[in-house]
Amino acid sequence: MTRSEQGWCTSVTRRTALRGLAGFLAGSPLLRSQLDPFRDHSRVPAMSELKTAFDFEPVAYAKLPRDIYDFMMGSSDGEATARRNRQAFDWVSLIPRGMADVSAIDCSTEILGHKLKYPILVAPTSGQGPLHPDGELGMHAGATAASNTPMIISSGASFPIDKITGAAKGPSWFQLYRMDTVEGTVDRIERAQDAGCAAITWTVDGPVGPYRERALHDRHLGGYGEIDENNPQGSRGRRNPRAAAQAPAPYGVRAQVLDWKFLSAWRSSVKVPLLIKGVVTAADARQCVENGVSGIVVSNHGARRVGHGCSTLEVLPEIADEVRGRIALLVDSGFRRGSDVLKALALGANAVCLGRVTRWGLAAYGPAGAQRVLEIIQAELTLAMATTGRPNLRSVDRTLVRTNFPWA
Ligand SMILES: Cc1cc2nc3c(=O)[nH]c(=O)nc-3n(C[C@H](O)[C@H](O)[C@H](O)COP(=O)(O)O)c2cc1C
What we know:
The protein is α/β, with parallel strands linked by helices. The chain is built from 17 helices and 12 strands. It has helices at about 5-10, 15-25, 30-35, 55-65, 65-75, 80-90, 135-145, 160-165, 180-195, 215, 240-245, 260-265, 280-290, 310-325, 340-345, 355-365, 365-385; strands at about 90-95, 110, 115, 120, 150-155, 170-175, 200-205, 275-280, 295-300, 330, 350-355, 400-405. The structure holds flavin mononucleotide. The site of flavin mononucleotide (FMN) has 24 residues, from helix 5.
């Protein structure tokens, strides 16, 4: 055997070398990053490259820690209501009117004394601090920059209420969760009113904490699970997912009482319009009218409460028929596009609140991102009105839509 032939016997064969390389790659973080297409962004796109509100979601995903993203996107149970919230928009068709002068489109309206350029508000969503260092201050600034869009400030905000209202000049409302005591509830209301909030929105759809399967699975190793949305002290804190997983067990559920009796105990402290958020039936809407509240928000909390609920768009017509314009009728849950907003207006809403989309904007590009998302949806609404031959909101009525909800 020559010397070089001896070398072949003792040196590494090609097969062994390839096997070694494969083993190295399998354990390498380089390969792991390939498994997740969004994590592999080589660059963050410029905001001008994003054309729809949907485009902001992957950027938010890329920028946020996984548990913060999951908290934002999560819905109850297996998220069937969330899917239905979106699907419902496909069950409503827009029927354009021809021969209409749409040379000037006016989307303006008036809601509870606020003159709005667009019938759009920022929905209350808790804990915006983890999305961006400016948190709710940034959201308020972005909303104000987007044609003075009112912002509803969550009970679970990351910043004190007066700091948020002081961050921008646009209108702000306050979203109220029940506190343990009447005194505590009155204290929150008074602080919000002192800070300049022009309406109080009491959320009644969460007597018990949420049950979200996404949060129950400890999928983000080393991360944290559910964040307590109802935590009135703010949602900076994170809980262990295993602790959250025990929360919805059949024993030991601590339900809050959210009823008219409790409301009557603190109602006199409300000096501004009072709205009830979380209405999804005509019967509840009737009670709201009878009890003289100023408005309701038809909402399933962005699918974060009831696991197999209806979309809000489906229940909106029967609620609008019950309300008949006597109180303000707002709606949210699943809205992502200007045409979504137009469909709700046609089915009887006076205005639409936007939740997750505004969070995607804030998380992706800070206040400018929140502003941009709102401006995109405002522009889409204007375009949808022009396309369907409706120059102003007075001309938006049920003849604009044909509904094909599953039971119809
Ligand atoms: C992350 C997150 C936090 C929320 N926090 C609150 C809250 O503190 N109070 C409240 O009334 N609703 C809260 N909501 C519900 C929103 O006000 C709104 O009903 C919902 O987001 C609308 O659905 P959308 O996200 O599909 O637009 C929250 C929603 C999300 C996504």
